[in-house]
Amino acid sequence: MKPLEFRGHDVPLHNFTVDNDGLSPDKTKRTVQGGHMQGTFEFRYAQFHWGSTSSQGSEYRVDGIAYPMEAQLVYTRDNYAAVKEPGHKYSVAIMATLYQVTFVDFDSVRAMRSILEVVESTTSTRGHRSLRHLLPWMVRRLTGHGSDADKSFPLTLHSLMPQADRQKFYTYRGSLTTPPCTESVRWTIFSRNAFISEALPSLRAAWWLEREIRSDLASL
């Protein structure tokens, strides 16, 4: 089997949007192919799941272990634009990364620390705000866009994935875990983890307003 090939995943995300439904990209084409993919799939959006404590939050468990956060990158075959109305069996692919807590200063931890600094400064000076309003403001700060920008954060799709050995994973054919629960999804769950710091409680506290704490839905 050929290795997975990621194209455009090192290109920084600019002018993307973030709201309660997840992160939507700019106009740059980012694709994955090879391996078990049976075609070329183009990135559409990302969504994140976290829990009320660091011992839960991910939709997937591995060997009975839940993780504090999970990032899901959603792709469709490059000739299908809509996830909700796919025109081909298995026309949606989702790459899931499980995050574990660490005290080591990895790049992903430093990136999350920068995000949390912005979140905490926002909530301390403006009080709790709707997630729909908080996240776009935060992203403008981190990417250098907007009049109040004072940080630069080179967010890429690879920064949301494991930093090593992306060729090891679990895979199966299933459905979306959120409405409309489309049954045309090729799931890929990386066996290596990404990392997040114990500052995650600040993220939970800042985004509590419109965030439903989800229980685990699947085990591997």
From TrEMBL:
<dbReference type="InterPro" id="IPR001148">
    <property type="entry name" value="CA_dom"/>
</dbReference>
<keyword id="KW-0479">Metal-binding</keyword>
<comment type="similarity">
    <text>Belongs to the alpha-carbonic anhydrase family.</text>
</comment>
<dbReference type="Pfam" id="PF00194">
    <property type="entry name" value="Carb_anhydrase"/>
</dbReference>
<dbReference type="GO" id="GO:0004089">
    <property type="term" value="F:carbonate dehydratase activity"/>
</dbReference>
<feature type="domain" description="Alpha-carbonic anhydrase">
    <location>
        <begin position="1"/>
        <end position="220"/>
    </location>
</feature>
<keyword id="KW-0456">Lyase</keyword>
<keyword id="KW-0862">Zinc</keyword>
<protein>
    <recommendedName>
        <fullName>carbonic anhydrase</fullName>
        <ecNumber>4.2.1.1</ecNumber>
    </recommendedName>
</protein>
<dbReference type="InterPro" id="IPR023561">
    <property type="entry name" value="Carbonic_anhydrase_a-class"/>
</dbReference>
<dbReference type="GO" id="GO:0008270">
    <property type="term" value="F:zinc ion binding"/>
</dbReference>
<dbReference type="InterPro" id="IPR036398">
    <property type="entry name" value="CA_dom_sf"/>
</dbReference>
